[in-house]
Design brief:
Chain lengths: 176, 580
């Protein structure tokens, strides 16, 4: 199984998320993660979709089917080494009186994570990184009682000098 | 205009020239789009638009069908004849869900269609209101594009986009879900209709890239046994002349797909038949001999390829298609050419060499003889008592000189029609290919007749499929259009019965029908007709049908357990084609 990251640029239209995800459903493909956000171009949304698949050919077919959707501007499929990518994880840890104390220095310096919220008897820690880095940090966090854990979908940019502007000419797309 | 938001409805009505209601805007858009005919069925959520239509009857002809599915298939038949989007207008909820089958059918067969669907008032959306249904969600997988309109000001642009998307590139169905609010409310800006000619996220490539054309030409020029698969794309692109020129110059044998039929006249020296499950013997078997396949406007459907792992493995492939998603989808293309078939053929013509392929073409002839001996003789030139479907279609083909538009349903009669009707006129077959929708033919034939009133349109339907949409006899009778209807009646769901016989040990599971008296039914609708079961009377019966200047139903009682051959068993390699 290889991990593929698809960057899908679309016009910002209601229902488009549905129209894109049914392309996966119909082919029995499981979406590992999905992120949708606005871009530096007004009215253009960016979907970052992560899937795992054995066949590059099948992924290429999928890309062409997504490109076929009328409101889709462009689709790019990437392997991990072709992109810079990250996720955000949040951990809500119990910090009861008498519990084992957090080593903030270790969390900051060794794990490159930080406490973003102090509650009365809990803290929220944010960790940015790849799936692997977050998974390793999760193991470390298990030293405390994890009340809640969640992470975002992957966001990724291609390791090319090209920007969005090259396939979405500026005169048509106002820069935000 | 600056006061428009605060004006009362009465005040707005006082200046009708300035502001249209959404419903009037819909009508005006249809007029500006040169739409003369729409097919529809009214109901609650579309009533404001029907009210506006009342004032537009002199410019837009509305045909009242008997079921929304009929509106959809009629719009498809109309589109297939005219190349323009067929328009179907229905209400929300069940009206819209009844349109789903034609929409799915139109998507698979690349048929342009604009569906105007009513929706509950905007403030009721998501409340499970009466006749509310999430039709945007439901139609998403089967439309090329869909859009919900809640503001009347959006109507002109949405309508323009709908027609542009439906008709351009690879055509397909488009659905507009229009809330009652958007229909009933007044626009707050003056109506202005600008045809859509470009969408930034949708730019179908019509003119091919020169390097792709050159790569294709190189393969074509060096091939020893090239073979053309001609698809529906040639007809959609209206590339009759370009295709004829290309075939004449290269002298390459041509087989069509089901929907590509009539792209080349059947008496053309290069026409060698049709491909696929019930296609011709030579046309299928010799796919294994070709060294180059030139696929034009076709998508290598599984009914054409059989077992993909054994299909044209020895050949190189030139794949010409307007839809990039078709390239390498089922069959790898050595030389893909993205573009409109007409433009691509035009670009290819000067680059291909004039050749002769007499020996290669002759190979197909040998198979034709075997097929004639084993199949055609039995189907057409037999000495049995009962009428066989093949002889009925052959006789019809001869009497109409292969010039009629045949509209077929789905099943044995469909395959037999494609097999025995000798198409000699461009764009003469309307059938449900990709979806295989039973019940398609009767409403589609009606729509085809509306689209091509000067052509003889003959619906050929099985007794099973006829009963799925027979209420459209009412639509046909009311219009008075002389649609000719043939029921090939074998009292069976024949194709399923054939499969049960061949692949399920003749365990006939719910395929025999107790049929009504079709002629009495037709008469009830005010349509004349008669039944023929005697071979001796078949010719005269067809003459009566063809001579009628009104709609006419001819029921032909056929041999009960006739099988359609040749046949490639599902999932088998095309070379495993069976003649008996």
């Amino acid at each position: 199984m290889t991990t593929y990251t698809l960057s899908v640029f679309t016009t910002n239209t209601i229902g488009l998320l549905n129209r894109i995800t049914i392309i996966f459903t119909r082919r029995r493909l499981n979406i590992e993660s999905l992120n949708v956000c606005e871009t530096e171009r007004k009215g253009v949304s960016r979907f970052t979709i992560v899937i795992r698949h054995e066949s590059r050919e099948a992924v290429e077919k999928l890309v062409r089917q997504i490109r076929k959707v009328v409101d889709v501007l462009a689709v790019f499929g990437y392997l991990d080494h072709e992109i810079v990518f990250n996720e955000i994880a949040l951990f809500k840890l119990a910090t009861p009186l008498g519990g084992s104390p957090l080593n903030i220095k270790e969390i900051n310096l060794d794990w490159n994570a930080k406490v973003v919220h102090w509650g009365l008897d809990y803290v929220v820690i944010e960790k940015n990184g790849t799936e692997t880095e977050i998974a390793e940090f999760y193991q470390y966090m298990k030293n405390w009682e994890i009340l809640e854990y969640l992470k975002s979908g992957r966001v990724a940019v291609g390791k090319t000098e090209k920007g969005l502007v090259e396939y979405l000419p500026e005169h048509e797309w106002e820069i935000v | 205009m600056e006061n428009s938001q605060t004006m009362t409805v009465e005040e707005k009505k006082a200046e009708p020239a300035k502001f249209l209601t959404g419903a009037q805007a819909i009508m005006q858009c249809l007029v500006e789009n040169n739409v003369k005919t729409i097919f529809g069925y009214p109901g609650g959520a579309i009533m404001p638009t029907y009210d506006a239509l009342y004032d537009y009857q002199d410019r837009i002809k509305h045909i009242l069908v008997r079921h929304e599915q009929g509106a959809g298939h009629a719009a498809q038949g109309f589109a297939r004849m005219t190349g323009r989007a067929g328009v179907a207008m229905v209400t929300s909820g069940p009206g819209a869900t009844n349109l789903m089958t034609p929409i799915a059918d139109a998507l698979l067969d690349s048929t342009p269609m604009v569906c105007l669907v009513g929706q509950v008032k905007a403030n009721l959306l998501g409340t499970d209101a009466f006749q509310e249904c999430d039709i945007i969600g439901m139609s998403m997988p089967v439309t090329k594009w869909n859009y919900q309109i809640t503001d009347p000001n959006e109507i002109p642009e949405a309508m323009a986009k709908a027609f542009y998307i439906a008709e351009s590139g690879r055509p397909g169905p488009v659905l507009l879900d229009i809330t009652r609010t958007a229909q009933a409310d007044l626009m707050t800006i003056p109506f202005e209709y600008k045809p859509c000619t470009e969408i930034v996220s949708y730019r179908p490539r019509l003119t091919p890239k020169q390097e792709q054309v050159e790569a294709a030409a190189k393969l074509i020029n060096s091939a020893q046994k090239p073979y053309i698969f001609a698809g529906h794309g040639i007809i959609i692109a209206n590339a009759q002349q370009e295709f004829d020129d290309f075939v004449r110059k290269t002298d390459i044998p041509v087989a069509t797909t089901l929907l590509g039929m009539s792209a080349l006249p059947s008496d053309h020296p290069n026409y060698i038949g049709w491909l696929g499950m019930h296609g011709n013997y030579g046309a299928n078997v010799l796919t294994d001999e070709a060294d180059l396949i030139i696929a034009i406007g076709m998508r290598f459907d599984d009914r054409v390829t059989g077992d993909l792992s054994k299909f044209i493995k020895q050949a190189k492939v030139v794949h010409i298609d307007i839809d990039p998603a078709e390239i390498n989808k089922n069959v790898f293309a050595d030389a893909p050419v993205i573009g409109d078939a007409k433009q691509v053929l035009k670009a290819l013509l000067p680059l291909v060499k004039e050749r002769k392929h007499e020996t290669w073409k002759a190979e197909f002839k040998k198979y034709d003889e075997a097929e004639f001996e084993k199949i055609t003789k039995r189907d057409v030139f037999h000495d049995g008592d009962k009428i066989r479907m093949g002889e009925a279609v052959t006789m019809l083909s001869n009497k109409t000189k292969g010039e009629a538009v045949t509209v077929t349903d789905v099943g044995q009669h469909q395959m037999v029609t494609n097999r025995y009707y000798q198409y000699n006129t461009w764009n003469s077959l309307v059938t449900s290919g990709g979806a295989g929708t039973m019940g398609f033919a009767l409403p589609a034939a009606f729509g085809a007749k509306v689209g091509a009133p000067d052509r003889e349109v003959i619906a050929i339907i099985g007794d099973g499929g006829f009963q799925m949409t027979l209420q459209e006899l009412g639509t046909i009778a009311q219009s008075g259009l002389p649609v000719k209807i043939i029921i090939l009646n074998n009292n069976f769901l024949g194709m399923v019965r054939q499969w049960q016989q061949l692949f399920f040990e003749k365990r006939y599971s719910f395929v025999e029908l107790q049929n009504p008296d079709f002629i009495t039914i037709a008469k009830g609708f005010g349509i004349a007709g008669h039944t023929v079961s005697d071979r001796a009377n078949l010719s005269d019966s067809l003459d009566i049908l063809l001579a009628s200047d009104k709609p006419y139903l001819l029921e032909i009682v056929c041999e009960k357990e006739e099988n359609v051959f040749p046949m490639v068993p599902a999932g088998a390699s095309v070379s495993a084609i069976r003649l008996e």
